[in-house]
Every structure is written in structure tokens, then in C-alpha cells.
Amino acid sequence: MSAARESNATGPLLVVEDSDEDFDTVREAAKKAGLTNEVRRATTGDECLALLRGSGGPVVRPALVLLDLNLPGTDGREALCQIRADARLRGLTVVVLSTSANPRDVNSCYRSGANAYHVKPVRHQDHLRVLLDLFSYWLTQVTLPEPESYTL
User: Which pLDDT score, from 0 to 100, does residue 7 have?
Assistant: First the structure.
């Protein structure tokens, strides 16, 4: 895939991922896609929620949240539930990116309000392809709200 069109979504990408290897793959895909969005990282659900709520620093209003499920501490499932329960955050675009293909996880995430659910491929090249497609769709083809429009 050649470089994607410039992102029409403002704000950083928030990648909630505890695996250094998977995070590096996201950064590689963002670079290959030609995205100019900053890539921010949280390694736990608690860190994700703190960034989104501004606990201990400025509030992060991402264009897109890529959320892993299996995280230390507050996992991605609980973080998703808390995001959707918070009126200031529920408008965020949250895409689950997990190694789990378990139908219970998939169904639970959609019931909890995930915008999409993708299973991480094992092979690096396949993982890159999924991410490039995901970035193309969510950041260049879909019109997302401005981050300020979903805050109180």
C-alpha cells in the first residue's frame, strides 16, 4: 500500500498496548500510511483512562483509540466500559485490536460500545496490512467528530 491520504481526523492516535513489539508495529504502520497524527501510548487501562481524563496532566483527545484487551491492571474490556460510561469520553472512536478471536470477547466488546474489533494477525506483514487498512478507513475515509465536539 502506498502512503495514505493525509488524515482528516485531528488529534493523536492513542494506542493502548502493553507489547513493545505490537506498539512498534503500529508506529511503523502509521509512518507507512503517511499519517501526521502524533502516536501516544498507554500500557494499561488505568493509564489510558488517566490520559483521557487528564489525571495528572493535560487531557488527551485522540482521533482514534486502538485498544488491546489483555492488559495489566485495568484491562481493555473494563477501560472500554469506563470510556462508554463517561459522558465526556463516550464519543471517542475506539477500535479493539486483540489477539483474541474468542466470540465472547468480540460480542462483549461490541455490546460495550466498541466501534470495531480486529484480531491481530500473528505474522508481522499481515499485522501491518490490517493496521494500514484500519488507518485508511478510520482516519482518511470516515468523517470523525472534532475532539472538542464530544466533551461537555
Answer: 56
Q: What gap in Å lies between CA 134 and CA 126, rounded to an integer? A: 12
Is 115 contained in some domain?
yes
Q: Show the beta-strand stretches assigned E in the chain.
A: 13-16, 39-42, 64-67, 94-98, 116-119
Which pLDDT tens digit goes with each residue over 97-107?
A: 999 999 999 99
Q: Look at residue 47 and tell me if it is in a domain.
A: yes
Q: What angle do CA 60, 120, 114 make, to 5 degrees?
A: 50
The domain in which residue 17 lies consists of 13-143
- Rg of the chain over CA atoms, in angstroms? 14
Q: How far apart are CA 45 and CA 68, in angstroms?
A: 9
Q: Does residue 8 belong to any structural domain of this protein?
A: no
DSSP annotation string for 39-82 = EEEESSHHHHHHHHHTTTSPPP--SEEEE-S--SSS-HHHHHHH
CB atoms under 10 Å from CB of 24, counted, come to 12
Pairing relationship of beta strands 39-42 and 64-67 according to DSSP bridges: unpaired
Name 145's Cβ contacts closer than 8 Å, sequence gap at least 6. Answer: 91
Task: Give the mean model confidence (pLDDT) for residues 67-96.
Answer: 95
Q: For the chain, first and last CA: distance in Å?
A: 39
